[in-house]
Design brief:
This protein is α/β, with parallel strands linked by helices and 239 residues long. The chain is built from seven helices and seven strands; from the N terminus they run βαβααβαβαββααβ. The chain has a single domain, classed as Rossmann fold. It has a seven-stranded mixed beta sheet with strand order 3-2-1-4-5-7-6. α1 runs antiparallel to α6, α4 packs across α5 and α6 packs antiparallel against α7. It is globular.
Length: 239
């Protein structure tokens, strides 16, 4: 079990996939938590409010410490590529860098942003580069002139405003057993502490939806995903 989570900014993982990360770790899986940037310009409001004159580097350092601590709680490895934010820029070199990371880690599942987000310029960009890097790492599932891996399953995690981002969840993951870890990890994110209550409530609401869909009354909290590729497998894998 190898899970790759790719967030545009340093805290994206904890809000949108913190429970799935912790659940994967609980089951003995390996998680690489990869941020494309620290979100130092557009995602660190509390830090700039505390000190408008602080340096960009000091914000990056604070964000790295927060994300590393949260990752330790959830049970994953944290890495940031430090590509910058608002705007994030991508090019062939960065695309190749991400493809090489995917190829080396060889995840079974990749989680990242949605293709559309009308309120954030970096999230759709992250989707696009993950899409391309995944294809480059896998070589369309056939032999090629370069090292390749089997195509990982690929999901978008829930954006902040799903109804405006075209997000249609088709996969709900029970995170009840690790939700206390997600709360502790969210508490590490002092740069965006105002989001903790929102995502605590969302976890309970998605848990309610999961109970209604499945009939499993033991589910208290859930996170949901949208699959970006079809399921392929034996019939018994659906049961």
């Amino acid at each position: 079990m190898r899970l790759l989570v790719v967030g545009a900014h340093a805290a994206d993982f904890v809000w949108r996939a913190g429970g799935i990360i912790a659940k994967t770790a609980e089951l003995g899986g390996e998680v690489l938590n990869l941020s494309l940037s620290y979100g130092e310009k557009g995602e660190s409001g509390n830090l700039w409010k505390e000190d408008p004159n602080r340096s960009i580097e000091s914000v990056k350092e604070a964000r790295h410490e927060m994300s590393s601590k949260a990752s330790e709680i959830l049970g994953c490895t944290y890495q940031c590529l430090d590509w910058g934010d608002y705007p994030m820029l991508i090019n062939e070199e960065r695309e190749a860098q991400l493809a090489e990371i995917i190829r080396d880690f060889s995840p079974k599942i990749i989680l990242t942003h949605t293709a559309k987000d009308p309120f954030n310029p970096d999230h759709p960009l992250a989707y696009t580069i993950v899409q391309r890097a995944r294809l480059l790492s896998a070589g369309a599932g056939v032999s090629a002139a370069f090292k390749r891996i089997d195509p990982p399953r690929w999901f978008s995690f829930e954006p902040h405003q799903p109804e405006l981002s075209g997000f249609l969840p088709d996969t709900y993951i029970d995170i009840s057993s690790v939700f206390d870890l997600k709360i502790k990890a969210m508490e590490c994110m002092g740069a965006q502490s105002y989001l903790k209550d929102y995502y605590t409530e969302l976890g309970a609401r998605r848990g309610n939806h999961a109970r209604r869909i499945s009939g499993d009354q033991s589910i208290k909290y859930a996170e949901c995903l949208e699959s970006q590729v079809p399921f392929v497998g034996d019939l018994n894998k659906l049961f």
